[in-house]
Amino acid sequence: MCGIIGCTGVKCASKILYKGLEDLEYRGYDSAGIAVLDGGKIFSVKRRGRVSEIKSGAEKLRGTSGIGHTRWATHGRPSDENAHPHTAGAFSVVHNGIIENYAVLREELVSEGHVFSSQTDSEVVVHLLNKYYSGDLKAAVLSAVERLKGAFALCILCEGYEGFVAVKYRNPIIVGVGGDALYAASDMPALAGLAESVAVLKDGQIAFASEGKITLCDFNGGAAGLSLSPIPAAARSTRLGGFPHYMIKEINEIPAAVKNTVHAFTEEKCYAALTRAAKKRGGFKDIILCGCGTAYHSALAAAYTAEELLGIPVRAETAGEFRYKKSAANSGTLFVAVSQSGETADTVEAARAAKGAGACVAAVTNVPYSALTGVADIVVPVRAGTEVCVAATKSYCGQIAALALTVTALKGRQAYIKMLAELKDIGAKCSAAISDCMVEAAARACASSSGVYFIGRGIDYPVALEGSLKLKEVSYVPGEGYPAGELKHGTIALIDGGTLTVAVITDKTLAEKTASAIEQIYSRGGRAAVVYASGCAPENLIERAEFAIEVPASSDSISPIVSVIPLQLIAYRTAVILGRDPDKPRNLAKSVTVE
Ligand code: M6R
């Protein structure tokens, strides 16, 4: 959603904050700002646009304490005024999250004479702080926080207080110590290279960082203990390393993402944790797999094979829908929440709802210290490494591997061991799919199409959905993903010579059926292409296709790991051909921490 950062005890705060905002920019990039304390007074710069827009302004700021923000707009369009920090009176504030009761608070504050300068929900926080401040910073923060409803991670500067305050409620914030300097940020990579030790704040905690020391209290003002641990190696800040974009770098990291995920699953004894949880409940009666966007697509892929393998009802749901369903889960349910970031509000809240209904909650996530892991009974690790590109690629493949291991672990040792063996070979297949893939012609075809439809049956349907999402997200070429049999029930009306339909075929038993759907497209003057697993597509389909891309075949439950790769590469190249920024597509942010 948004990225926030704070520091104190450094030589030049604005320099540290600017660099940190570059690392956090994937969390939102419609405006950015920095505020510093210089001689006990607050000075700030903020602008609409990318972080680079504030570079020259930031260079002029002096001071050893400060806060920074990079925004994904929720309330108020991207503009200079709506950019954070919001500064008024003695305070400056940056916020990640949503203040649900902001309208009521704003009305109250305006009636008391506070003058607002933005349309954001966040600005109420700075005015509340001023309202309650009479020289006691802690008292003001406690009173202000008590009034807030919603989700908020905050960093606060107060004139006369050489340091910053960090507040955590339902949105992430991590504090860190490096030498005499103290830090806070929305995620670990922004602290890598700065902090030597870190602590993930818990919901309802406030950190006062000043004069080389972080003091914690809860929302009632009671002291809380701070337990710092060395910053994990995996949180290393990532750099492009010679690649032109993170998207292509991260696609190239898929083999390592899958390998590390499998390793972590075995290391962290997930097999034992899952079977123990199942035994405790006398076996799970049903499974619900849940996520948003790409994570929903990996959940859907897992649901396809899990039901057949386990012989119990298994379904995938988008988290935003699941949350508001009555009696959707119960004590016999295994609820599997899938989320790269572990921060997506819909997914975290869906997991809370499932837990509240008595379900056993497993979190499949790439971020071990996330909000989702806090809710879960069992954590199933994805070890894709930090994913910077807004479009999920390597994390999707890691999720498919983690879910395949989860499902087979529930089936029993034999199935699990077999899956481990299959996953051993998948890295080489991914590498082959990446290096052999000739996507240039395919990307040019997509770039010049008025719409691109992706179709598949069975396990290829979730892959079609993911291929379509990826292309839309980074290239803005419209289209849809469809079950191959569904196209003829309406959407076929959109097919003409300007549209392209890409069939995904990795299941030989369904290939002829998908080929029929392609015939229907040709009969209506449409164009078609195919991405297929070796030996799975009919020859005449390959020969007539506008492009045909072959990938190594693998077993059903893990075939999406390989078959998605050409689709990711096509989306990437299409975006580049059309002059889009594949790493930071318009209107988006990496994690969506509001509903
Ligand atoms: O962090 P999460 O996996 O929970 O994020 C869920 C979606 O927002 C995410 O997958 C989104 O769809 C991606 N931008 C897709 O590339």
Write a brief structural summary.
The chain has 595 residues and is of the alpha/beta class.
Describe the structure.
The protein is α/β, with parallel strands linked by helices and 595 residues long. It folds into 3 domains: 3-236, Glutamine Phosphoribosylpyrophosphate, subunit 1, domain 1 (4-Layer Sandwich), CATH 3.60.20.10; 240-435, Rossmann fold; 437-581, Glucose-6-phosphate isomerase like protein, domain 1 (Rossmann fold, 3-Layer(aba) Sandwich), CATH 3.40.50.10490. The protein is 38% helix and 25% strand. The protein contains 19 helices and 25 strands. The strands form 4 sheets. The protein has an 8-stranded antiparallel beta sheet with strand order 3-2-4-1-10-9-11-15, with helices on one face. Strands 5-6-7-8-12-13-14 form a 7-stranded antiparallel beta sheet. The protein has a 5-stranded parallel beta sheet with strand order 17-16-18-19-20, sandwiched between helices. Strand 19, helix 12 (371-375) and strand 20 form a beta-alpha-beta unit. The termini are close together. The relative contact order is 0.09. The model has no long low-confidence stretch (mean pLDDT 95). Bound molecules: 5-amino-5-deoxy-1-O-phosphono-D-mannitol. 5-amino-5-deoxy-1-O-phosphono-D-mannitol is lined by residues 292-295, 339-341, 344, 347, 390-392, 469, 473, 591-592.
Major sheet summary line: 8 strands, antiparallel
Kindly, what is the distance between the CA atoms of the first and last residues, rounded to a whole number of angstroms? 11 Å
- What's the number of extended β-strand segments? 25
CATH superfamily of the largest domain: Aminohydrolase, N-terminal nucleophile (Ntn) domain
Bound molecules: 5-amino-5-deoxy-1-O-phosphono-D-mannitol
The best one-word shape is: globular
Count of folded domains: 3
Helix content percent band: 25-40%
Q: What is the radius of gyration?
A: 25 Å
CATH fold type of the largest domain: Glutamine Phosphoribosylpyrophosphate, subunit 1, domain 1
Give the name of the CATH architecture of the largest domain.
4-Layer Sandwich
